[in-house]
Predict the 3D structure of the following.
Amino acid sequence: MFDYSLDHVFSMHITIDPPQAIGPAPEGLRLIFPVSGGQVEGPRLRGRILPCGGDWLTVRRDGVGVLDVRGTIETDDGALIYMFYMGIGDLDEDGYDKALRGAMPAVFQLRTTPRFQTGHPGYAWLNRLQCVGIGQVVPAEGKVSYDIYALG
């Protein structure tokens, strides 16, 4: 067993626009959810999510949603931080067929692995982190929320 810790870095609440339905592709159903904004608040980081990113979601035939998310955080003191992560969300065994009909689950859980990049010296510590994100999405309301923890 290895020693490790999980340290809460921040929580974020993201707003997303309705998906751009690309449709069935070889890997699964492709849906792109543009990010329209959001807030970041926590013990180590505070700011907002800029309306420039998105989630390039692929719903596999087994109902698992594979997340590919990119976005920008602007801190309260003006630093810009690039955030990117992969992860999964379980839309249930019939999630693919439902998503094809535009019927997303009311709520589903998300598990992610966020990383960060910034050139701002006050936030360079973020460049060294591997994080885990525990969250959920309410698609009909366009709301995504996460708690982000650094692995130590």
Observations:
- The first helix runs from residue 95 to 100.
